[in-house]
Amino acid sequence: MKHHTITLAVLPLFLLAGCASAPDSAQLVDEARNTAGGLIQTLGGELKTAMTAGGPAQAIGVCKERAPKIAAEAAQRTGMQIKRVSPKNRNPKGVPDAWETEAQASLEQRLAAGEKPETLDTHSVVNTPDGKVFRYAKALVMQPMCTNCHGAEDKLSPDVKARLTAEYPDDKAIGYTPGMIRGVLSIKKSL
Ligand code: HEC
Fold first, then answer.
1. Average pLDDT, integer, range 109-120
2. Could you tell me which residues come within 8 angstroms of residue 190 by beta carbon, excluding any fewer than 6 positions away?
3. Ramachandran quadrant class, 46 (left: phi over 0; alpha: psi -120 to 50; beta: rest)
4. Distance between Cα 129 and ligand 1 center (Å)
5. If 136 and its partner were Cys, which of 33, 56, 123, 143 is the partner (CB 3.0–4.6 Å)?
6. DSSP, residue by residue, 126-159
7. Which residues have a Cβ under 8 Å from the Cβ of 100 and sit 6 or more positions away?
8. How buried is residue 178: exposed, middle or buried, by Cβ count under 10 Å (0-12/13-18/19+)?
9. pTM, full prediction
10. What is the pLDDT of residue 14?
């Protein structure tokens, strides 16, 4: 009889714990996906407009000035930290951390296994000394347009090359072909 009472008392706690965590993380994933999708659309739109108006050398400014601004605006709105990183980074601050490196490697495997590039993302909740952190990464996949600035050296126009050399002396972000994962959009939120 005693045993029975304990079981009944403990059971609702487990149920509560299960209910409390599951919708939360689904909501975070939704929020991260919406934020990432919005950012990619905004940036892609501005990039295309700038490329049509002034060519790729001019459009470098969009990637340099606008990408961080658009990310900062979304960060303010959502309380999430947002950045773009790559193992072959152009922006010196775009170096991936351990979780991001692992995330990109797993997304590359899933892409190779036939998953659709548009929806390729991953997420988890990690324990850190400062508490739990929600992590999310979305693959940024090379399209033909991207080769103007990230393609093989012979795909870059002389003026793009000149601007990249001037502004990013340690640039590693060339040599990509369409379909490759150029980097990830990384989102973090402390829980
Ligand atoms: C007009 C030139 C240009 C085009 C086109 C372009 N990029 Fe970039 N990209 C840049 C520049 C410049 C940076 C560095 C921005 C900065 O200073 O933060 C960059 C940075 C990045 C980064 C951040 C990581 C890093 O290396 O610093 C990713 C990821 C990225 N680009 C992916 C793409 C993808 C995917 C496309 C096509 C959809 C694309 N880019 C098209 C110029 C370009």
1. 96
2. 130, 131, 132, 133, 134
3. alpha
4. 33
5. 123
6. EEETTEEEEEEEEEEE--GGGHHHHS-GGGS-HH
7. 85, 137, 184, 186
8. middle
9. 0.88
10. 46
